[in-house]
Amino acid sequence: MSTEFNLSDIQGNILRGYRRNFVRHLVLEVGDRTAARAFLAAAVDGTGADVPAITRDVTWSIRPEVCFNIGITFQGLRALRTPAEHLATFPTEFVQGMTARAMKIGDFGDSAPETWPAPFDRPERVHLIASVHSDTEAPLDRAQEQVARAFTVLGVRNGRNLPDGKVFFGYVDGISQPRFKHIIDPDQAGVDEPMDPLGTALLGYPTRQEGVTFRVPSPHDLGFNGSFNAFRVLAQDAAGFEAYLDRSADLLMGHPDRDLLADPARLDRIGPGLDMHGALREVVAAQMCGRWRNGVPYELSPDAQFPDEPVSLTNFDYTHSSRCPAGSHLRRGNPRGGPIVQRIANYTRRLVRRGMSYGPDFDPANPDDQERGLLGSFIGANIGAQFEAVMCDWINLGLHDPRITGSNDPLLGANTPETSWFNLNLPDGREIRLDGLPRLIRARGGAYTFLPSIAAIRYLSGLTS
Ligand code: HEM
After folding, report:
1. Distance 376 CA to ligand 1 centre (A)
2. Is the shortest distance between the CB of 111 and ligand 1 below 6 Å?
3. For 449-460, how does the pLDDT look when each residue is reduced to its tens digit (9 = 90+)?
4. pLDDT per residue over 280-307, tens digit each?
5. Is 126 in contact with 119 (CB distance < 8 Å)?
6. Which of 56, 99, 306, 427 has the highest CB neighbour number within 10 Å of its CB?
7. Nearest residue CA, atom 25 of ligand 1?
8. Cα(24) to centroid of ligand 1, in Å?
9. How far apart, in whole angstroms, are the C-alpha atoms of residue 321 and residue 102?
């Protein structure tokens, strides 16, 4: 196995994020194979004035106006006429595609692929997802026009950063990410978590799974330095979330242990100007996520969103007596070194998360039910062992901790009010159960894509049959 490492062979936005203001995801079909291959050849060389250049993971002296990257579905590899013997070397979940895997990742009921709007209602036509990032919107239009000359644009999804790094539901996101040796990422300065081996995100390198190396699709130029992406369009019921916080706080107002959740003498540390009801809403939101809405980890500051002394946003771990609920989104997404049933799995399913919000602003004082949510990319070297394993075992079954097994992630899970519950932690280890959790996040589209290396894009552009 080769362990050579050449950053300029890797597409950007995998090992470190772009931090741009806008994204446009172009959902593409290969109509004319020759035009598509010619586009890829020009994009990878960055020579054509009329074709956006593929952005690599190199350190910039000047920020490019646009960052342009591609992901290809299995149907896309076929449409470009990748030879059958090479197609056969790709992993099953990627070959089958996201819609075929719906039951494994909680996409049923009102998240079922049958309910997805175009273009994701015709997964066999989704061949590529080209993602264009920029700080202003005009360059996105230009890139779209250029792409449309070579591909059929089936659909477009526009995303933007909300103020203060927040996502809908009001949380700061994008704090915890895997981090890799040799990658200089200012966002990771001061992070004191274990390093992740390159094989977490790239094909062809050692992984953290003992003795396991993921198979690199052949030929070497096609598979090596590639990665996989679960691209998800996730609608967030912001009004439903705020209403659930209200209902929970109503219930907790009369609970005998209420003051253990929010100390009446220190409500201002939970949020300036909050009364008890408002503070309880914030405690419920913080325990559901594992972070207060301003990003402060519940584990390090369980009594205050605004602690007296600053706390690290990233350097913490969980124990049996953690104040952060085992069922919180954060502990399900990454249990860190904490006690889990599958001990060997600690740190093995890490996902690179890239995402921006879509849809109109939300004002909690004037709630509406327009569609809004997250355009998320969940990136790793193996979709089955990372994204699907997290979604299935941890998010939707809670298999890692017997105390929560059978319950779903309170934010992301396939919840139904009739059966779903979430346990709030009290400081003395007792719990308060919240029932009636609705499903707050629904899938509205997506695809599994392969994120080819630079050499692989060249290989694909050079196919001839
Ligand atoms: C609309 C959908 C989602 C929302 C609103 C959301 C929200 C959040 C927030 C606010 C955080 C805390 C910020 C941070 O630690 O960086 C977080 C962390 C995280 N989320 Fe999500 N998330 C969503 C979907 C997902 C999905 C689909 C997955 C994939 C399985 C996922 C996995 C994770 C992981 C792994 C972490 C980091 C945990 C850690 O390392 O401590 N999230 N999410």
Report:
1. 10
2. no
3. 999 999 999 999
4. 999 999 999 999 999 999 999 999 999 9
5. yes
6. 99
7. 412
8. 21
9. 35
